[in-house]
Amino acid sequence: MMSYASGETVKLGDKVSLGSDYGGTVVIIFDTGEYSTDYPEAQWGGYLTKGVMMNFPLYGLIHYEEMEPDVKFIARGAAP
Protein backbone atom coordinates (compact mmCIF):
# COMPACT_ATOMS: atom_id res chain seq x y z
CA MET A 1 0.00 0.00 0.00
CA MET A 2 1.29 3.42 -0.94
CA SER A 3 1.41 6.15 1.72
CA TYR A 4 1.92 9.89 1.77
CA ALA A 5 5.00 11.34 3.48
CA SER A 6 2.72 12.22 6.42
CA GLY A 7 1.89 8.52 6.89
CA GLU A 8 -1.71 8.28 5.66
CA THR A 9 -2.47 5.46 3.23
CA VAL A 10 -3.38 6.65 -0.27
CA LYS A 11 -7.08 6.03 -1.04
CA LEU A 12 -9.19 6.57 -4.13
CA GLY A 13 -10.80 10.01 -4.07
CA ASP A 14 -8.24 11.58 -1.71
CA LYS A 15 -7.77 15.32 -2.06
CA VAL A 16 -4.11 16.23 -2.48
CA SER A 17 -1.86 19.17 -3.29
CA LEU A 18 1.25 19.56 -5.38
CA GLY A 19 3.05 22.89 -5.24
CA SER A 20 0.47 25.65 -5.59
CA ASP A 21 -2.23 23.28 -6.90
CA TYR A 22 -4.49 22.30 -4.00
CA GLY A 23 -7.18 20.73 -6.19
CA GLY A 24 -5.70 17.30 -6.91
CA THR A 25 -7.61 14.05 -6.62
CA VAL A 26 -6.45 10.42 -6.57
CA VAL A 27 -8.29 8.87 -9.54
CA ILE A 28 -6.62 5.43 -9.90
CA ILE A 29 -4.76 3.09 -7.59
CA PHE A 30 -3.17 0.52 -9.89
CA ASP A 31 -1.73 -1.63 -7.08
CA THR A 32 -5.20 -2.52 -5.77
CA GLY A 33 -7.13 -2.25 -9.06
CA GLU A 34 -9.24 0.75 -7.99
CA TYR A 35 -10.44 3.06 -10.77
CA SER A 36 -12.71 6.11 -10.53
CA THR A 37 -15.70 6.28 -12.83
CA ASP A 38 -14.01 9.02 -14.90
CA TYR A 39 -10.93 6.82 -15.46
CA PRO A 40 -12.26 3.27 -15.94
CA GLU A 41 -10.11 0.16 -15.96
CA ALA A 42 -10.94 -0.48 -19.62
CA GLN A 43 -9.10 2.74 -20.45
CA TRP A 44 -6.04 2.06 -18.26
CA GLY A 45 -5.95 -1.64 -17.40
CA GLY A 46 -2.77 -3.29 -18.64
CA TYR A 47 -1.19 -0.02 -19.70
CA LEU A 48 0.09 0.83 -16.22
CA THR A 49 0.19 -1.69 -13.40
CA LYS A 50 1.90 -0.01 -10.45
CA GLY A 51 1.37 3.14 -8.43
CA VAL A 52 -1.33 5.80 -8.51
CA MET A 53 -2.73 8.34 -10.94
CA MET A 54 -3.68 11.81 -9.73
CA ASN A 55 -5.51 14.54 -11.58
CA PHE A 56 -4.52 18.15 -10.87
CA PRO A 57 -6.31 21.19 -12.33
CA LEU A 58 -3.01 22.94 -13.10
CA TYR A 59 -0.89 19.93 -14.11
CA GLY A 60 -3.36 17.36 -15.45
CA LEU A 61 -2.85 13.63 -14.92
CA ILE A 62 0.32 12.56 -13.14
CA HIS A 63 1.35 8.95 -12.57
CA TYR A 64 3.47 8.08 -9.55
CA GLU A 65 5.02 4.62 -9.14
CA GLU A 66 6.25 5.76 -5.73
CA MET A 67 4.92 8.63 -3.70
CA GLU A 68 6.81 11.90 -4.01
CA PRO A 69 7.28 13.97 -0.83
CA ASP A 70 5.94 17.04 -2.70
CA VAL A 71 2.46 15.46 -2.88
CA LYS A 72 0.60 16.45 0.28
CA PHE A 73 -2.51 14.75 1.69
CA ILE A 74 -5.32 17.24 2.32
CA ALA A 75 -8.43 15.17 3.11
CA ARG A 76 -10.34 12.01 2.35
CA GLY A 77 -12.82 12.47 -0.45
CA ALA A 78 -15.52 10.36 -2.00
CA ALA A 79 -14.19 8.14 -4.78
CA PRO A 80 -14.93 9.99 -8.03
Description of the molecule:
- With 80 residues, this protein is mainly beta.
- The chain has one domain.
- 5% of the residues lie in helices and 38% in strands.
- It is built from one helix and six strands; from the N terminus they run E-E-E-H-E-E-E.
- Strands 1, 2, 3, 4, 5 and 6 form a six-stranded antiparallel β-sheet that branches.
- The longest helix has 4 residues, at 41-44.
- The chain is globular.
- The mean pLDDT is 92.
Task: Supply database-style keywords.
single chain; 80 residues; 6-stranded antiparallel sheet; 38% strand
> What is the share of helical residues?
under 10%
Provide the number of structural domains: 1
| Uncertain residue segments | none
Mean pLDDT: 92
Structural class: mainly beta
The percentage of residues in β strands lies in 35-45%
List the helices and strands and how they pair.
Layout: E1 15-18, E2 21-29, E3 34-35, H1 41-44, E4 52-56, E5 60-64, E6 71-75
Antiparallel strand pairs: 1-2, 1-6, 2-3, 2-4, 4-5
